[in-house]
Structure formats: structure tokens, C-alpha cells
């Protein structure tokens, strides 16, 4: 995918209503870069040094966007201000936390799937610590 408009279209097909301006802001915030693909087109990618800053960006984003969280078994549901769900989910994934199996992020919600109930609680404690 080489155009932000293509990302908007793909997300709308998945039922996620976003604007090109939201995608532009997220691309900038995530510091994505365009690299040529094997087909000669371009695709967005994370720069190598980006991973080093993921925790700082996650902490800053959570401080600004976090609204609430709750646990159901091994699921941690995080409510955030609109437009921040995909960024936070991506940053959590980049951190590769041992206790987290994966994430799903939409406009204002992040679903963190932990490996156990205790690890969901640990993930929630981590999130809460980052919001302070």
C-alpha cells in the first residue's frame, strides 16, 4: 500500500471509519517511512531505530489518550480517546511483552490478549503505570 487513501479505503472496508488526516497523523506519529517493495511499488515500514523509541512513544500516547481499562479473563480492554487505538496497539506489539499474546486496536479501543489471567493483570498494571 503506497498511498494513505488506500489505507483509508481498506480500513473503511473493515468497518473502521477514518479520514486521510487521521492516517496522516498516525503515519507521522509512528514515524513510518516508505520503502520500495519487490514489485517496484512503495510500502510503509517502521525504521529500525523506531523500535528503540517505542516504549517512550507508548508511554506518551497512553498519558494523553488513556481513559479506562478492565479485565475479563485473559483479555484486557483499554478505552482510549478516538484515533489512538491503532497506534497504541501497534506500539504494544512492537514492545513484544512476554505476557502479551497479541493486540487488536480500533478507533478508541485496544484489546490486549494476554497469555493468562495473571498476565492480563500484569499488563493492566503496566498500562496504568505508563499513564502516570
Class computed from helices, strands and strand pairing: alpha+beta
Name the helicity range.
Answer: 40-55%
| Counted beta strands | 6
Average pLDDT number? 88
Strand-residue proportion: 25-35%
Offer a few descriptive terms:
single chain; 44% helix; two-stranded antiparallel ribbon; four-stranded antiparallel sheet; 5 helices; 132 residues; alpha+beta
What can you see in these coordinates?
With 132 residues, the protein is an alpha+beta fold. Strand 5 (100-105) and strand 6 form a beta hairpin. The mean pLDDT is 88. It is built from 5 helices and 6 strands; from the N terminus they run ααββαββαββα.
Give me a quick take on this structure.
The chain is built from five helices and six strands; from the N terminus they run ααββαββαββα.
SSE blueprint and pairings:
Blueprint: H1 4-13, H2 20-29, E1 33-36, E2 42-45, H3 54-65, E3 66-72, E4 75-80, H4 85-95, E5 100-105, E6 109-114, H5 117-131
Antiparallel strand pairs: 1-2, 3-4, 4-6, 5-6
Helix pairs in contact: 3-4
Amino acid at each position: 500500500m503506497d498511498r494513505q487513501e488506500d489505507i483509508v479505503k481498506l480500513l473503511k472496508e473493515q468497518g473502521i471509519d477514518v479520514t486521510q488526516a487521521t492516517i496522516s497523523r498516525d503515519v507521522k506519529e509512528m514515524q513510518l517511512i516508505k520503502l520500495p517493495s519487490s514489485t517496484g511499488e512503495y510500502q510503509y515500514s517502521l525504521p529500525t531505530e523506531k523500535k528503540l523509541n517505542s516504549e517512550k512513544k507508548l508511554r506518551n500516547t497512553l498519558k494523553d489518550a488513556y481513559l479506562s481499562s478492565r479485565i475479563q479473563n485473559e483479555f484486557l480492554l483499554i478505552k482510549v480517546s478516538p484515533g489512538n487505538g491503532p497506534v497504541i496497539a501497534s506500539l504494544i506489539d512492537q514492545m513484544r511483552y512476554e505476557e502479551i499474546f497479541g493486540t487488536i486496536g480500533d478507533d478508541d479501543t485496544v484489546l490486549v490478549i494476554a497469555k493468562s489471567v495473571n498476565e492480563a493483570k500484569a499488563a493492566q498494571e503496566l498500562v496504568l503505570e505508563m499513564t502516570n
